Amino acid sequence: TVVLILFTANSVPAAQYGTAEEAKAMLEKAVVAVKEDKAKAVDMFNKAEGGFRDRDLYVSCANASDGVVTAHPYLKGEHLQDIKGKKGYPLGQEMMQNATEGTIKEVTYWWPRPGSDKPLEKTAFYTKVDDQICSVGHYKE
Q: pTM of the entire structure?
């Protein structure tokens, strides 16, 4: 019993929300998937399959050419350049202008968690892969 109690006291429960490290790792995994088979990858992102949805972490992608969102839980078909954070920051424009192949950049803006309407500070890691701009964001709190 003592061993069980010590083990239980020392075990760390999984965090309720995704971390910056987990968001970046998911984006890196998404880049590999897009390079292997873009159509299959975008389909997995939209269906939340293959480990591309974890708690409040998800992959979002858009065409680099015209900005049409190809993968997102609810913004598919929108234009990336028109997407602004809840306090007006033009995060989509910044991503369209600054995304470069082989480099992961960051943009911070206000956005509600999935299933909520309360805006929180969120940082998205983003990069260009083939003809897609893909991102995974995490919330500060």
A: 0.88
